[in-house]
Amino acid sequence: MKEKIIAKASELFLKLGFKSVTMDDIAGEMCISKKTIYKYFCNKEVLIEESTSTVHRQVHEVIDSIVAKDFNAIHENFEIRESFQNMFQNNIDTSPLYQLKKHYPEIYHNLMTHEIDQCNHYFKDNILKGMREGLYRKDLNIDIYVKFYYTLIFHINETTISEREAQKIELEALEYHTRAMATEKGIIELEKQLKKITT
Fold first, then answer.
1. What are phi and psi of 93, to 5 degrees?
2. pLDDT tens digits for range 108-128
């Protein structure tokens, strides 16, 4: 039952917002009593912590599954972006990270501490892969480019209220990031990926 409550809460939080969803809403959606929810979670903050941890885990499972398909480095980034878009497509109005930071800053801070570590690892692996494939320049300062990109991405999500707007700016950031690193071969692959989005 605990896992079912977390799954439903995660869905509602992402769709309607962390602030607006109440324990009553979750209980009503699941056709259970609020008392049942409180049996597993002493308050809403604890449920939000568990839900964000679950979503965080799911996000990284998606990333791992795409990396395992062994696309080239640029294609890989675009596949990950598309998967995130599909994951959060029901939440067009409000960016989940923006809401979490605004209403539950402590939970947000704890989540970001883990998230930045994992993103650093993923971004670095992607850059090294692109360099091996001749898609990214060999002279890149990898640590600086990793820092540039995660600062850009997290800033977009932290400060953009609308999820739709955040996704639009994220695409611009991905193009900007890729062009800054790309060789001529990489630019050709980038243009190919951008064309797939616009067609």
1. -85, -50
2. 888 888 777 888 899 999 999
Domain 52-198, CATH number (from 1.10.357.10, 2.60.260.20, 1.20.1050.90, 3.40.50.10470): 1.10.357.10
What would the pLDDT profile of 47-87 be if each residue is shown by its tens digit?
A: 999 999 998 888 889 999 999 999 999 999 999 988 877 77
- Domain chopping of the chain, boundaries: 52-198
Task: Please report the sign of the dihedral spanned by the C-alpha atoms of residue 73, residue 59, residue 165, residue 100.
Answer: negative
| φ/ψ of residue 96, rounded to 5 | -60, -40
Contact 114, 51 (CB under 8 A): no
